[in-house]
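tool_call predict_complex ligand=protoporphyrin IX containing FE
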Amino acid sequence: MFLRIALALQTVAVFAAPVTAGVLLTVPSGLVWHSVSAYSVFAASIVHLAAAILAWRPGGGSPRPIVTATVFFVLVLAQIALGIAGVKVVHVPLGVLLFGASLLQLSRHLPERARA
Ligand code: HEM
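tool_result ok
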């Protein structure tokens, strides 16, 4: 349950990133919004990792979500570094990939009846 909420928050945070990127490219103050959005994704990915660990111990679930949460967290760190370095050619597609990956993980943790 906690893992599902963490994944939903993370997905919303990653969805907001291209929106604030649009603001970044439109108004002078846009950089602040994209930075706030970027660090929200960073915080959400840490909460996701913590939730995956808690779902394993003491939750008694599978340790597999820890692997995906760790990979996601590493990709977020790379995304932040690429954004700061201004490597847009990798930064933009990686942002799209992060959103797709987060949505996919969320869909895998939805209750059976919500998936039907
Ligand atoms: C599809 C999604 C995204 C798009 C289209 C996008 C686009 C951009 C663009 C155009 C820049 C400016 C680069 C420059 O001026 O050279 C930027 C900077 C940045 N982006 Fe993104 N981004 C996306 C997602 C993300 C995500 C998910 C994160 C973090 C997890 C992130 C973190 C950053 C950071 C830290 C910067 C540098 C801001 C600064 O210079 O202070 N971006 N992004």
